[in-house]
Design brief:
The structure holds 2 protein chains of 2 kinds. Chain A is 42% helix and 22% strand. Chain A is built from 5 helices and 7 strands. In chain A, helix 3 links the parallel strand 5 and strand 6. In chain A, helix 2 packs parallel to helix 3. By secondary structure, chain B is an alpha+beta fold. In chain B, helix 24 runs parallel beside helix 29. Chain B is elongated. Classes of the chains: A alpha/beta, B alpha+beta. Chains A and B meet through helix 1 of A and helix 23 and helix 24 of B.
């Protein structure tokens, strides 16, 4: 099984978080899986990691519709962080609004990180494809 | 008797000698004497032959007698000057010359005495005559006065003539001082004083033309002469003379002027003048001729006139000249106009004449030849001819009929072709017409009026008269005329007749067109007007009159926008007018707000077009405006409708997204969990997955429930609103959540007056108030107990209910747009579901209201609910 150092899940829906974790456990080895229930907590956590000199997560699973700070607001702050590593950001959403898709395309051009947009429901195959270092 | 014989033969001869001479015998008795001698000594009428010379010449001196005796003794000729006073006491000087008289045998038989009056010679030649006059003295005719000054006695004496000249009485006693004072101050007085001084010192005489003022104040010119008198070389006085020459001086200056005038005429630059002999030889010629021909006087004088090359002339001309001069010499006055070339080869016209000059005996002695430049006259004559020709052509070709009548008799003198055409008379008949026929079929009254006008103003008309053609049709003719005088001073009438039927026709056409245009303009569904440079309306159509609120156009004409609209509107219109008039750029289709004096507002679409005059500037403008107020109103309504619709649309899209998103997230969970369940072998995990499926199912139910509520609100927008007392709602809510209030130690301050009420849906009102209050309690500040204050105000037709708290506040910059969104929460509060405010907003909007939020993080939030009181 592939091994990934660190993965971060940002979603307010516990069922989705449960699902992603369950699939991840079956396809890779990862010691550090962080979960955050909104963008605000997530960005604060990542900033703390940067300060503590911890390894940045290799892969992010990011929901869009979240209370307090949504996925877009999180992404806006995240791309401005001083991270020397290329991170894979998987936007996982139930939204089929084309505006959200376009927005993700816009972020692809604005950052060196890898941005991927996928719709729920998630499947094992789907997660497997997008769970790898950028 | 030889001597006697001699004397007889010689006596006649001697008598005639032009000299003063006498022959004396040895006894100094007169034998022969010349007439001049007898005259000189005043004895011309006496027989003096045989008389001794002493008897004749009383003043004869010893010296002279001695000399005579010496001559008898054969001594040589001697001359001496003798001073004497004649019978009139005038001092005279004579020179005598004595010579021995010899017979044929050289024997002395007597003495020949020749005397010469040398009085003249003693003075300068030009003064001799004056001195003679002076010495002759009191001649009344010559008006010469004398004076003497005795230096020894210092006495002055004037003769009567002198006194007369000085205008003083005969008893006047002159002195040397008064003598000087008569002379005019300045040149005259200085000159006489200096002359007298010089005479005393150097013995010189004087003769001067001087001015003096007489005792009566008359200024006269005198010729003053004088000389000193010496006795034994000693100065003893002065004698002098005056002659009044005032008249001579004046006549001299007159003569000089005449001569000058003559010379200037003779030499005038426009005239050639010459005097010819009767044989045609040139005697005198003026400078003008010399200048014109570039010849010298000596080239011409004494030449024959026809031989003098003034200018190149041909032989036949020369012959002609000879004949003319011949004719003039015969006493005929000849005159002709000739063309010559000047020294620049330029043509000059000359009026040449020869006038015979007669002497006393009526005989032609010379010819006065005159040539006068008449270039200007010739060119003026040409111009006159040209203009007369032009007039003739105009007269003949003019479409206006002209006729000339005698004023008194009315007889026709002249008329042009157009006259017959205009009046319809037969050309051959016109000559027989009279002035009264000119205005065809005119009544006596008309004719009388015309004659009166002519007499008073020398003109008549223009008057319009109707003429009839032979076929009976009529046409209008414009007739006018004026009184003129011919060279003989006879009064004539010029009458002009002009067929104006075409003009009339055109006028009619224009009238018709104008009427058509007026009708068109009046019936246009547009306001049309023309404004002058002062923005005064000078033309308006019916629509404009109606729009301005007047009954007819007369009331509107001459008015400006300031009379019709409010100050600001009128000023803006005036500014527009000026801009259009000054820049000539039209304003097209400009939408403006027009506020009338009564306050009513109209929206107009205005066009203003400058009306350019012939000089390219605009003095007026055409305005066209359409009242689009009704359209505007409809447009506003439409815009509002579109706004509402698009708002609804937006809401629907939003709702659709919410629905799709929320439902999708649940179904995605179902799908995922069911997949896990199918593949799961572990029973415990299976049970866990089923539990999760139940949770997912509950979540779905709750979501559907919420969506239902929202749909309910939005579909029931037509629920009847009833008046709701705000305080009733607040009390109800307070009661329902009293437990929560108590638990959270919240304070509720209600400042809404009891009278405050709104038209609303009661259940919505309850839900709205409850939501905001619970929201305030839920998001209370962790450091303080919640205080919630409710107030109500009226604002712009709205009732505003304000709910103010002291909670944690919201960063409106960050979350403002999402505050009322579905499932949006902004706080870390686990109770936050993000549905309450969304529903509240929907309920407020369902009642045509709105919510405006003010908030500051850490201070608190105020929700202002605007509810429309009227609805």
């Amino acid at each position: 099984m592939r091994k990934i150092n660190s993965i971060c899940i940002i979603d307010d829906d516990p069922i989705t978080v449960f699902g992603i974790k369950k699939i991840l456990n079956s396809i890779i080895v990862c010691d550090n899986i962080y979960t955050y229930i909104n963008g605000k907590i997530a960005i604060d956590g990542i900033k703390e990691m940067l300060i503590d000199g911890k390894d940045m997560p290799d892969v992010l699973f990011l929901d869009i519709n979240m209370p307090i700070m949504d996925g877009w607001q999180f992404l806006e702050e995240f791309i401005h962080l001083d991270i020397d590593k290329k991170v894979r950001v998987n936007i996982v959403t139930s939204s089929i609004d084309p505006i959200d898709k376009e927005k993700s395309e816009l972020y692809k051009t604005r950052t060196g990180h890898t941005i991927v947009f996928i719709n729920k429901p998630i499947s094992r195959e789907g997660i497997q494809k997008i769970t790898k270092a950028a | 008797m030889q001597g006697t014989q001699h004397s007889i033969t010689n006596s006649n001869l001697i008598k005639q000698l032009p000299k003063s001479i006498a022959f004396l015998n040895k006894d100094l008795e007169i034998v022969f004497v010349s007439e001049k001698w007898t005259t000189n000594f005043g004895v011309s009428n006496q027989n003096i032959t045989g008389k001794q010379i002493q008897e004749i010449i009383s003043f004869i001196s010893e010296k002279w007698l001695k000399s005579l005796n010496n001559s008898l003794d054969g001594k040589s000729t001697k001359s001496e000057i003798e001073n004497y006073y004649d019978e009139n006491s005038n001092q005279k000087w004579l020179e005598w010359t004595n010579a021995p008289w010899y017979d044929e045998n050289k024997n002395i038989i007597g003495v020949i005495v020749q005397t010469e009056n040398v009085t003249h010679k003693l003075f300068e030649s030009n003064k001799i005559e004056k001195l003679e006059i002076l010495l002759k003295g009191k001649s009344e005719i010559s008006k010469i006065g004398t004076w003497e000054y005795d230096a020894v006695k210092d006495q002055m004496s004037w003769c009567d003539i002198t006194k007369n000249i000085y205008d003083v009485s005969k008893s006047y006693k002159p002195s040397i001082d008064s003598f000087f004072n008569f002379y005019k101050e300045g040149y005259s007085r200085n000159t006489i004083a200096m002359a007298m001084d010089k005479a005393m010192r150097h013995g010189t005489a004087w003769n001067e033309k001087l001015q003096l003022t007489t005792a009566r104040g008359k200024d006269i010119w005198i010729l003053a002469a004088g000389k000193p008198v010496f006795k034994n070389d000693k100065y003893i006085g002065i004698v002098g003379s005056f002659q009044d020459i005032t008249n001579q001086v004046q006549s001299k200056s007159k003569t000089e002027e005449k001569e000058r005038i003559f010379k200037s005429i003779f030499n005038s630059s426009h005239q050639f003048t010459g005097i010819l002999g009767t044989d045609g030889s040139i005697l005198e010629i003026s400078d003008t001729v010399l200048k014109f021909t570039n010849l010298k006087e000596e080239d011409l004088i004494n030449k024959k006139f026809w031989d003098a090359y003034w200018w190149p002339i041909q032989d036949f001309v020369r012959e002609g000249l000879k004949q003319i001069i011949g004719a003039a010499a015969a006493g005929e006055f000849m005159r002709s106009e000739i063309v010559v070339l000047d020294n620049n080869q330029k043509k000059s016209y000359i009026d040449f004449s020869l006038r015979p000059v007669y002497d006393k005996n009526n005989k032609v002695v010379s010819l006065l030849a005159e040539g006068r430049f008449i270039n200007e006259m010739v060119s003026a004559r040409k111009k006159l001819k040209e203009s007369e020709q032009k007039f003739r052509e105009l007269y003949a070709l003019s479409p206006v009929g002209y006729i000339l009548n005698e004023f008194e008799s009315g007889t026709v003198l002249d008329f042009n072709n157009s006259f017959a055409k205009t009046t319809g008379y037969c050309t051959k008949d016109i000559g027989t017409l009279n002035f009264k026929h000119i205005i065809k079929n005119s009544t006596k009254k008309t004719l009388k009026r015309i004659l009166k006008e002519l007499a008073e103003k020398s003109t008549f008309g223009p008057l319009e008269h109707v003429y009839t053609k032979q076929d009976g049709t009529t046409y209008p003719v414009l007739v006018h005329g004026s009184l003129v005088k011919n060279g003989k001073g006879e009064k004539l009438i010029w009458t002009m007749a002009q067929d104006i039927s075409e003009t009339k026709e055109k006028e009619k056409e224009i009238k018709t067109e104008r009427k058509l245009l007026k009708t068109l303009i009046d019936n246009l569904p547009l306001n049309v007007y023309i404004k002058d440079i002062d923005s005064k309306k000078i033309l308006v159509n019916k629509s404009e009159v109606e729009f301005s609120g007047f009954e007819n156009e007369k009331n509107l004409l001459g008015k400006t926008d300031f009379d019709l609209y409010d100050e600001q509107t009128a000023q803006s219109y005036r500014d527009e007018d000026l801009r259009v008039l000054n820049t000539l750029n039209p304003i097209l289709g400009k939408e403006t707000l027009c506020i009338k004096k009564d306050g009513s507002i109209a929206t107009l679409l205005i066009s203003k077009i400058p009306l350019k005059g012939e000089d390219g500037t605009a003095n007026s403008l055409v305005g066209i405006s359409v009242d689009i107020s009704y359209l505007k109103q409809k447009e506003d309504e439409l815009r509002k409708l579109i706004n509402v619709t698009s708002l609804q649309n937006k809401k629907l899209i939003n709702f659709a997204h919410i629905v799709s998103h929320n439902l999708r997230s649940h179904t995605a969970n179902f799908s995922m969990l069911l997949n896990f369940l199918v593949e799961e072998k572990d029973e415990t995990e299976k049970t866990n997955l089923i539990k999760m499926l139940v949770t997912a199912s509950d979540n779905l139910l709750e979501t559907i429930d919420n969506l239902n509520t929202v749909v309910d609100i939005n579909t029931n927008i037509n629920i009847e609103k009833t008046p709701v007392k705000i305080n009733d709602t607040i009390s109800l809510v307070k009661k329902n959540i009293s437990a929560l209030i108590k638990a959270k130690k919240a304070t509720l301050i209600n400042e809404v007056p009891d009278s405050a009420s709104v038209r609303a849906i009661p259940s919505y009102m309850e839900s709205i108030i409850m939501n905001f209050i619970t929201n305030s309690i839920k998001y209370k500040h962790p450091d303080r107990d919640p205080i919630i204050k409710i107030t109500s105000t009226k604002n712009n037709g709205y009732i505003v209910i304000s709910i103010k708290d002291n909670g944690i506040g919201i960063d409106l910059k960050k979350y403002g747009d999402k505050l009322f969104g579905m499932y949006k929460t902004f706080h870390k509060n686990p109770d936050a579901k993000g549905i309450g405010l969304y529903i509240t907003k929907n309920q407020v909007e369902a009642m045509n209201g709105k919510i405006i939020t003010c908030s500051e993080v850490d201070k608190g939030t105020t929700f202002n609910i605007y509810l429309n009181e009227k609805n």
